[in-house]
Design a protein that fits this description.
By secondary structure, this protein is an alpha+beta fold. It is 26% helix and 19% strand.
């Protein structure tokens, strides 16, 4: 084998290894452009509203590194809420799974078909796991209920979009694309919930 052939094969192998993560980033970024209407999933979008420390200018901050440290362990430490994947309204119509950091009773009580008023406690953490066409996780979007005063106009939610290693591509409070969709479910504290028939018992 020639040196050129070996180098070409090495480059092709590297490209094939990077392709799935590159596609995942592209799908998440595509989802940051907006929503197609109210969906049945919990979404995150572009980065506006905070600086890199999670400061909204209200004096109340979030620790994005700590949020992401918890979020990346979602499949081990959180409760999966849906039986079957949910078709997302964002990111090209990909399927998603919803994971919630315990306790999960408040999330289970959100009935999108018959909503009633409720509020989530500070430190509530919801991860939406993005899936590829084969059902494998590719990226995640996050909702975190910050301390009171973080973003009072939007019930103090912090939003993030990241790869599976927790590298944030977007984050903040009052993120336009997020609030634009989730304002439709302000009654249930900006959370869509999962139809009862698709909830894990």
């Amino acid at each position: 084998m020639t040196t050129t052939t070996t180098m070409t094969m090495t480059m092709m192998t590297t490209t094939m290894k990077l392709l799935p993560s590159t596609l995942a980033v592209l799908f998440v970024l595509a989802g940051l452009t907006g929503c197609g209407g109210g969906g049945g999933d919990d979404e995150v979008a572009d980065s506006t509203g905070t600086d890199s420390t999670g400061d909204t200018g209200t004096g109340v901050t979030v620790d994005e590194a700590a949020i992401m440290a918890e979020a990346v362990a979602y499949s081990t430490n959180f409760t999966k809420m849906n039986v079957n994947p949910i078709a997302s309204q964002h990111a090209g119509g990909i399927d998603v799974n919803i994971w919630v950091k315990p306790p999960v009773d408040n999330y289970r009580s959100v009935d999108p078909e018959n909503p009633s008023a409720l509020n989530f406690a500070p430190e509530t953490l919801i991860v939406k796991e993005h899936l590829d066409g084969m059902g494998a996780p590719t990226a995640m979007t996050i909702m975190y209920k910050a301390p009171g005063g973080f973003d009072p106009d939007n019930n103090d939610w912090w939003w993030g979009a990241a790869d599976l290693d927790g590298n944030l591509m977007a984050s903040g409070a009052a993120v336009d694309n997020c609030i634009g969709c989730h304002a439709d479910v302000a009654l249930t504290d900006y959370v869509y919930g999962i139809p009862l028939a698709n909830q894990v018992p």
